[in-house]
Amino acid sequence: MKKIYNAGSMFNEAQINQRKIEGVNLRKELKGFDIANPIDFDSNLGLGVCPTPKVIWEADYEQLQKAEYVIFELDSLDHGMISEFGIAVEMAKSSHPNKYLIVVISDFRYYQKGSTTQISEFAINHFVFGQLFDQQLNDENRIIQVASHNEAIQAIKNRELYLENRDDKYLKLNQDLDKKYLYETGKMFG
User: Fold this and answer.
1) String of DSSP letters for 127-181
2) What is the pLDDT of residues 145-164, one digit of tens each?
3) CATH number of 64's domain
4) Is there a contact between 85 and 65 (Cβ–Cβ < 8 Å)?
5) H or E segment at 84?
6) In terms of residue numbers, what domain contains 123?
7) Which domain of life is it from (predicted)?
């Protein structure tokens, strides 16, 4: 059974509720997948539960290693999730040739493409963001940036249909979902 790992912040009420909703949606839309949603891990259940750094590291790293699909909520700028993103990029490039990475940036300010009346309020560190443009992962169609968790689910469905049928129309559907080239077809990031 293929595994999906859902990486995102879960430190305040809104984030906790969002991760729970994502888990429900993943299980509803992607039946037959093993969903690893850290908010549902035994170590993260209940108010006042605070697992040790070692417990968090071991649990998350194990799930990250096993996952074929990894979803990252990059716009939260959470240090742990950004670390997971870097580790997953390296895994995908070196030892996990089937790992597919999906970055979610849902902050609407990213998609405003620079207003003439105000300075952009949203930024991601260029070293972190630059990983989205890794040549190997892009050549192999194994990294994508989407605007919502629902689009992440659709990207997984499209990839599964591509793997099942080898029909390039499913690759094209994911290329159409991909938002990393929003600005000048990515020239400013290349």
Assistant:
1) HHHHGGG-HHHHHTT-EEEESSHHHHHHHHHHHHHHHHH--HHHHHHHHHH--TT
2) 999 999 999 999 999 999 99
3) 3.40.50.450
4) no
5) helix 79-94
6) 3-186
7) Bacteria
